[in-house]
Input
Amino acid sequence: MATPELTRPELVCPAGTPAGLRTAVDAGADAVYCGFRNATNARNFPGLNFTPEELQGAVAYAHQRDAKVLLAANTFPPAGQTALWKEAIDSGVALGVDAIIVADMGVADYAARAHPGQRLHLSVQAGASSPEAISFHVREFGIARVVLPRILTVAEIKAVHDQIDCEIEAFVFGNIGMMAEGRCALSNYATGLSTNMDGVCSPAGDVHYEEDEKGNLATRLGPYVIDCFSCGENAGYPTICKGRYRVGSRADPYYAFEEPVSLNLSALLPDLMRAGVTALKIEGRQRSRAYVRAVVSAFRAAVDDVLAGRDPALADLLALTEGHKQTQGAFRSKTWR
Amino acid sequence: MAIGEEGAMGAETELTLGPVLFNWRPETWRDFYFRIADEAPVGTVYVGEVVCSKRAVFFEPLYHEVAERLRSAGKTVVFSTLSEVMLKLDRKTVEAVAGLPDTVTEANDSAALWHLSGRPHHVGPFVNVYNEDTLAVLARRGAVNFCLPGELPLTALAAMGNAAKTLGVSLETQVFGRQPLALSARCYHARAHDRTRDSCLFVCNEDPDGLALETLSGQRFLAINGIQTLSHDYLALVAELPQLAASGVRRFRLSPHTCDMVAVARTYRDLIDRAITAAEALDQLSGLGIAAHFANGFAHRQPGHLWVNGC
Output
């Protein structure tokens, strides 16, 4: 149903490559987010991301079609290496991106001081999960929008909204990690590559698949077995927080942190829009163009349906979720915790 | 580097005791601090619930008694705040701790920074201080001591040390105990017992050093502590201390476990005072009956589970 308090949310979509960016814009994205091809962004994967020249073209393409470009510079520079991040901020500003997504306080402070007019968003990697934490970043760095951690219920998002002086962006679809963003060193523990400093989670170079004589397939990250699949089971990519493990008190292995599921909040769209969320974010800069086209188109139609008072049809999105399993995570109910 | 080189490690180097991360019985917790007060050669003791606001209610009635006992023994007492702040109870708990009069507080989340900015405070290892710029941002707002994130390598610490010296703030790093690796909104202790966080019945108190998590092939991997995930192994920075000191780290933090923490503190004090060698220190720590390996990989920019010899 259409209600007067519904405002049109910005649909923020992933762009892993220039082609992916054009796909997302053409499919109806109001904004796309992307990063430079180095450790300054949290999806530092081989073959992904943008050179400054590519970003320049991407900004022109998006702006010609009234879409915004958000630059993710949302990792944490280790001491002695901050120059690369400052360079990313300076380049982004020079290329005319609409906002820069930051997590590190030093990077945020640099951006705010060196480029006072530049719009800044606070990355989910900053882990600002309370009105006080968000307000701290608004006060100190002039943050205009916070990307909320995926751990709050819709009711809690509404409560946060009423207590802060900046916009809210919330994840609605895609891969959902189980650990608080920006506060997880599990990949580094197993592989020596850090999510916070290097922008990688479960780096592909440390992933191993091993089949035994019975056809069972074990997946490893570094030296650690993350899961084991019997013949015919669909083996998932080994991510520590979605693996199966043993504890003394349980007879059988279990998903100690979370099942391998994807976040799909399409059913909660009207509630999120009523909670005062300014922007809806789709995860997946590492995904294919076909995936981006399908998800962005479906959400574009769904948001427009909700605004027009129609029931959104989103059943097809299930086919795109991880292992075809989906969750509403913490958003519906706190019993998830 | 041999101990004594650079002349950076000695009497001015302080041992600290981090907050108890686990849900110990309140009387065990209190008696632990009493013994630390009486016997452990540590200068600063961090007290307070860092992991779960639901647990804090058990320890709050004991804070005054414990803090007084520690202060009478000449220790500096610092109150640590929650590492994850989301629920109403979390927020109230942080505000209450940050508002304690005549108390130094360690912020473990930016919610605490909101309350503490403008007056002297510590910044704990759960705040992402990875570089000299963030150090400066927070120093300008009143931070005087930083316990740095565990995954920062020694090479980055040197750059931090130079900045800390200029800013007039002190640096601290954990050198002993399980390594905090992740936080979550979900309680994994409750999940292991098919409960939810709201109905947990405080089952985390069954595992005073954390719940060991093994891989399907039997590798000892992680340890669960409520919403926190730690390494199964114990961090033991020993041979690295001179380099840490040369980088400007003045405080070495021991993270409490059920093993004899007074013995751990004495070993580290002797090591700092050059009464024993790194090899002897490691022998002593190995003799404490800890059912886990030692690791030091993060310091060497290696996977955190690795043991890298020497320095």
Q: What stands out?
A: The domain at 5-177+233-293 of chain B is CATH 3.20.20.120 (TIM Barrel). The two ends of chain B are 7 Å apart (CA to CA).
